[in-house]
Amino acid sequence: MQKLKRDDEVIVTTGRDKGKRGKITKILDNGRALVAGINMVKRHTKPNPNLGKQGGIVEKETGIAVSNIAIFNPKTQKADKVGIKVDADGSKVRIYKSDQSQIG
User: 9-79 has which CATH code?
Assistant: First the structure.
């Protein structure tokens, strides 16, 4: 079971975007995640008339290392760690480590 999933609200713990919050839009295979509005870069693109793409400078988000983000706990309004708890029926659920409450 993954500790971070798509649509989790996370907070950046290190780097130039430290303290910013956003939702995970995609988890990449190389240990990185795309977070909405975080780690924005400018990409210079050529116009492509065949595809109807206009050229210029496009701002887009790139991957951020999963180790540099933490899940945001709305009760404590702080970053938190994720734990996995096994219920009596054998199903696994994700919990916040600070207050042992279930995520989502």
Answer: 2.30.30.30
